[in-house]
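User: Could you check the structure of this?
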Amino acid sequence: MKKQRSQCLMNYPSPVHPILRGRQSGSSDSPKLEKLLKAVETKFK
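Assistant: Sure, the predicted structure tokens are below.
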């Protein structure tokens, strides 16, 4: 389920896209990015 939601977010033309991609490659562990990603995930739930 979580993987599907990530795929859905990846298709969105938004600032979330590069953040998700960076997170998947393990390059972004900035608290600000994590906070933003959490907010977005909550919005898409």
